[in-house]
């Protein structure tokens, strides 16, 4: 059996509202919000009795999604939000944007901070990493033509 697609990337956050607003400003659309709880959910995650608020964010092309989760129970047990870019595990999510300078300006108003600098890769991309809400590492790429 062949892989069909990647459905979403999950990110655990403390402040769901602020994170939704940030990703909306980036250009993602809120597809829906829900509360997930019950013994079936705990069987999937291995966490037992859990209560989680989720928001599903969709890219404008409809092909990619971010699932933002805020755990009410059990409590969060680790914090990787400020890990450097060479840390093991989740590194970043990369988005292609029309205008990297405009995107940075809009996201800075929502607390985003440039990690290094905007660089040019050959004559193909302008690239940068930013820290978004709660220190989430996000990559931005602008295709050059």
Considering DSSP H and I runs of 4 or more, what fraction of the residues is helical?
A: 10-25%
Sheet bearing the most strands, described? Answer: 5 strands, mixed
In DSSP terms (H or I, runs of 4 or more residues), the helix count works out at 3
Gross morphology is globular
Nearest-integer average pLDDT? 92
Euclidean distance between termini CA atoms? 38 Å
How many strands in all? Answer: 9
Q: Roughly what fraction of the amino acids lie in strands?
A: 35-45%
**What is the radius of gyration?**
16 Å
Uncertain residue segments: none
Structural class: alpha+beta
Element pattern in H and E = EHEHEEEHEEEE
Tag the structure with descriptive keywords.
single chain, four-stranded mixed beta sheet, alpha+beta, 145 residues
């Amino acid at each position: 059996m062949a892989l069909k697609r990647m459905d979403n990337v999950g990110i655990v956050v403390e402040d769901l509202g602020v994170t939704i607003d940030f990703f909306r400003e980036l250009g993602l659309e809120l597809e829906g919000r829900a509360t997930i709880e019950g013994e079936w959910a705990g069987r999937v995650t291995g966490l037992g009795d859990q209560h989680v608020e989720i928001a599903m964010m969709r890219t404008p092309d409809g092909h990619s999604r971010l699932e933002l989760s805020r755990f009410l129970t059990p409590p969060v047990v680790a914090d990787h939000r400020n890990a450097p870019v060479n840390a093991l595990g989740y590194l970043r999510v990369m988005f292609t944007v029309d205008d990297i300078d405009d995107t940075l300006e809009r996201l800075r108003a929502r607390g985003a901070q440039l990690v290094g600098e905007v660089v040019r890769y050959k004559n193909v991309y302008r690239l940068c990493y930013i820290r978004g809400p709660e220190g989430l590492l996000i990559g931005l790429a602008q295709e050059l033509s």
